[in-house]
Amino acid sequence: MHRPLVYLALSMAAASALVPETIGVIGVGTISSAAVRGLSERSGTSAPAFVLSPRNAAKAQALDDAYAKVEVAKDNQAVVDACDCVLLAVLPRQAEAVCKPLKFREGQLVVSLMAGVPLESVRAWCGPADCALACPLPAIAEGAGTTIVTPSEPRTIAIFERLGKAVPVATEDQFKRLQAMTCLMGDLYQRQLSAQDWLTSHGVAADAAAAYVGGVFHTMTHDAQHAGPATLAELVAEQTPGGMNEMVISEQRTDGAYASLGHSLDSVYSRLNGAHDPSLAPVNFRK
User: Fold this and answer.
1) Which whole number is the average pLDDT over 176-182?
2) CA 100 → CA 40, 78, 104, 163, distances in Å?
3) Cα(31)–Cα(33) distance, rounded to whole angstroms?
């Protein structure tokens, strides 16, 4: 009865062994810093060594000060030369200018964290290295990320499995569809803020309102953490008919809130494809 657990442990160990020993970061921003922190703090003695680009000096120096296996390189080519894997995290509009002059090598792994930059372009700039796309969120710093990757490159999957959960995606189009989900993060925070404001406007103390809204949203999404294909539909269906949860669903659906969300996702997807279509904004569908 314990054999599946043994196989799982072996699988996890094998995946861990695939994490590159040296990882370079070109573009030391919020997400790439979170990757350095997460891998440094959750890998024990097997933590990779990091070589950071020097441009964002304050963030690079903070990581250098915090971790023994982090150093700052003199330039971007020094990062590439020193590492088995390079995370690209510069602004998309800077990507070609930064990457094209660099000399990558065969067998090296390049993982682009740059939203909206096609895999084809990364390959053109960074060949003959193996190239992949990933879309992590800041929670990777705490090992709580859920990161989509394409293609299903084993080393890329291993990196983000160590930072939480990796979700391999078969095609770049599917990757972009899933990437659109990450743009709901700000909307979620705004909904929480609206709930907090509603509470405080009705006399609830600000500290209690903030603590409860933050905590209860986390509690409510717990059951969806390991969702299968039918999980979310089942969670909606189990709301008591005529109850308050079902009432809110009905009111929001009647008001067009869920259709509006779909229109926003269409709009985001168009932007991820490099040709934002403003006509897809939800306001254009309201009657």
Assistant:
1) 95
2) 29, 15, 10, 29
3) 5
CA–CA separation, 108 and 163 (whole Å): 21
Per the CB < 8 A criterion, the answer to whether 20 and 85 are in contact is yes
Beta carbons of 46 and 73 less than 8 angstroms apart: no
pLDDT in tens, 253-276: 999 999 999 999 999 999 998 888
CATH topology of domain 3-170: Rossmann fold (3.40.50)
For residue 249, count CB atoms less than 10 angstroms from its CB and return exposed for 0-12, middle for 13-18, buried for 19 or more. middle
Which residues, 6+ apart, have CB-to-CB distance to 139 below 8 Å?
Answer: 34, 145, 146, 164
19 is written with which tokens?
A: 């994490």
Q: Is the pTM of this model over 0.90?
A: no
Helices (H), the chain: 3-17, 30-41, 57-66, 76-82, 95-99, 119-126, 154-162, 172-179, 184-201, 206-220, 231-237, 244-254, 257-272
DSSP code for 69 = T
Q: Where are the domains of the chain?
A: 3-170, 183-285
Residue 59 pLDDT > 50: yes
* Residue pair 155/85 in contact by the 8 Å Cβ criterion: yes
